Amino acid sequence: MKSNHRFTKLLRANLNAVLRSQPEILPQNSSLLVAVSGGQDSLCLAKLLQMQRTKFNWNLTIAHCDHQWRRDSVANAEHVEHIAKEWGIAFCLRTSASLLTSEADARQWRYAMLVEMANTHKCDYVVTGHTRSDRVETLLYNLMRGSGADGLASLTWMRSLTDDIKLVRPLLNVSRHETLGFCHEQQIPIWEDSTNQNLDYRRNRLRLETIPYLQEHFNPQLEMAIAQTSELLHSDVIYLEEQAKSFFVDNMTVIWDDQAPRLHRQRLQEQPLALQRRILRQFLAKYLVHQVNFEDIERFLNLLTAQNRSQSAPFKGNISAFVEHPWIVLHIS
User: What is the pLDDT of residue 1?
Assistant: First the structure.
């Protein structure tokens, strides 16, 4: 490695610092499934892990998911496979059998395939190349959708995909500019995805128009500032979630039941509003057929001060809540 390889030195030092401070995210002697699209971020990640695999005794497998959205998707997959072989890393591929019509559908399919490949190759960790730049885009995107703190802090260092498989993002302190510099220094051929320039995708518009505008007119260090905000919010979310869970430890506060689960109204009233909302989200998530949203929680909260026998407007799935003093009961038909 030449002495002037600034980005290579920077990113290797960054990865080592992350692993020293959070050794649990990529332990020694682990089998890692590395998700590689062929773009600069994922190729940078794969190369960094390849450089360090002997030191940490990692067993690496590169995984590629072909959504079949582009005419060159087969060539893209072959490009990633060629690089994997050149680097001495095992390769696996999954190709969509049907047309994925939305970004959300593609994401759901992709993670399902990554879990399947991780199980096949006996990998405990799926590693992705999400960067600080992605973290900023996610926070801004979720902010505009009206997300709470959970959504604003959703891109975290590690989360569970299944009981046995963790998703890890070790490049969250690295910018997209830095991964590009690394790839140029290492002479890694990047597969240019034409859809990255398509402004019909909202994330692309954020990346190409909104964030550069904010950096130019408001804060040149916007990316760093927003990433720090996301990290702070994540710490707050973890603390509040644990506090909310403790509400259910006392059997006097809740009765779990398939047909008529209930919460103790007075005990819930005694909690701060922030905890009330988290307690209700955790409670409702066990019974509602859809993801719990702000309206669901507020509908339930209104019953805290309602008269006995008051009933909420129905939730989706023909579920409603009503006051049966001293409880608020969720009626599941």
Answer: 46
Q: How confident is the model over 135-148, as pLDDT tens digits?
A: 999 999 999 988 88
DSSP 25: S
Exposed e or buried b per residue across 89-106, where buried means at least 16 C-beta atoms within 10 angstroms of its C-beta: bebbbbebeeebeeeeee
Buried b (16+ CB within 10 A) or exposed e, 28-42: eebebbbbbbbbbbb
* Residue 333 to residue 6: CA distance in whole angstroms: 63
Long-range contacts of 193-197, Cβ-Cβ distance < 8 Å, separation of 24 or more: 193/37, 193/38, 193/39, 193/70, 193/76, 194/70, 194/72, 195/69, 195/70, 196/39
Nearest-5° Cα angle at 314, 309 to 316: 150
The residues with which 330 forms a beta bridge, in sequence order, are 321
What pTM, to 2 d.p., does this model score?
0.86
Side-chain half-sphere CA neighbours of 26 within 13 A: 29
CA 31 to chain CA centroid, Å, is: 21
